[in-house]
Write a structure and sequence with these properties.
five-stranded antiparallel beta sheet, 14 strands, alpha+beta, 316 residues, seven-stranded mixed beta sheet, SH3 type barrels
């Protein structure tokens, strides 16, 4: 009798151990999904940003009846308040049209539309798929067909597998002044990630439809892509926590162009011999030091000296 009880206890313990492993795995998956399905919210913007599509992109989203991924990322930016979003798409085109009317004198007086009002983008954010098609065979053709017609004809499009409902994406941020790529983040998601508590809350009442990106909330592949981009965006914001408060001031000053014959002086007072003569059209690079109208600059040969700022203009 003692042996039977002992065997039953061992069997029960074994069964408990076998069921505990899937339970632990499920808990880990839930935890991971909850971490990636929560949109980060910033206390203040990290700067201004525009969102554009990659130049070499195949329009894979049209075959899936999805809006461009840039529209999805703009929703993230607006909801997270981590950047001030500047429009470089249809909104900008409409604004330029209004500016054309103002320039032609067609707008009413006091319209206050003119030069020097457009806010600059500090950064550019580009959403893309991770390129996984390394050969020039069937996969590359499948990617092309998938972008055009969708369905099973193009089951594998870069980092998007339509049959398995998986997505591997990347986000890159470039500083528009220095052209430096200041951050890159990857994200991945699969069909089984959909439906965990937090991700379900992400799509319900998300306002995606009102933002024009309802397809990303209403379709399985759209939700998978959304979760992948959200994971990348969350990582991206963590990387960008050390950005300067003022991106314009943190970058090298804009170059100056000499507008009339001038001299590069040895000091701001203009005493002593000149370092060199300056011809119109030459570029000078401010060091940041100023004394009244005199600016300290370097020329393209590395000569340093002072120039009267009235002899220059900002190079554009």
């Amino acid at each position: 009798m003692h042996k039977r009880n002992s065997g039953a206890v061992m069997l029960a313990a074994g069964l408990l151990a076998m069921t505990a492993v899937p339970a632990l795995a499920q808990t880990a998956q839930e935890t991971r999904q909850q971490q990636t399905a929560q949109l980060p919210v910033c206390a203040k913007p990290l700067g201004t940003i525009s969102v554009i599509e990659p130049e070499d992109a195949v329009n894979w989203w049209t075959g899936q009846q999805l809006p461009a991924p840039s529209k999805l990322i703009k929703v993230f930016v607006n909801k997270s308040r981590c950047f001030t979003l500047v429009d470089r798409g249809a909104g900008m085109a409409a604004a330029q049209y209004e500016r054309g009317l103002a320039a032609d004198g067609d707008l009413r007086g006091g319209s206050n539309i003119g030069k020097g009002q457009v806010k600059a983008a500090d950064y550019v954010l580009i959403p893309d798929l991770i390129a996984q098609n390394s050969n020039a065979g069937g996969n590359a053709i499948g990617g092309l067909l998938g972008g055009l017609v969708g369905g099973n004809a193009g089951a594998l499009i870069g980092g998007l597998n339509l049959k398995k409902k998986t997505a591997d994406v990347v986000l890159t941020v470039t500083d528009v002044r220095s052209s430096e790529q200041v951050a890159m983040a990857e994200g991945s998601a699969k069909k089984t990630d959909i439906g965990w508590g937090t991700s379900a809350g992400l799509f319900s009442g998300s306002g995606f439809g009102a933002a024009g990106v309802g397809g990303y909330a209403n379709t399985e592949i759209g939700q998978v892509i959304t979760l992948a981009y959200l994971q990348a965006y969350t990582d991206l914001i963590a990387q960008l926590g050390g950005l300067p408060d003022n991106a314009s001031a943190a970058n090298v000053s804009q170059a100056l162009r000499v507008t009339k014959p001038a001299r590069l002086l040895a000091n701001a007072k203009g005493t002593g011999s000149a370092v060199r003569d300056l011809d119109p059209g030459m570029l000078l690079y401010p060091t940041g030091a100023k004394e009244g109208m005199m600016w300290e600059v370097e020329d393209e040969l590395g000569n340093k000296g002072w120039v009267n700022s009235t002899m220059t203009e900002l190079a554009k």
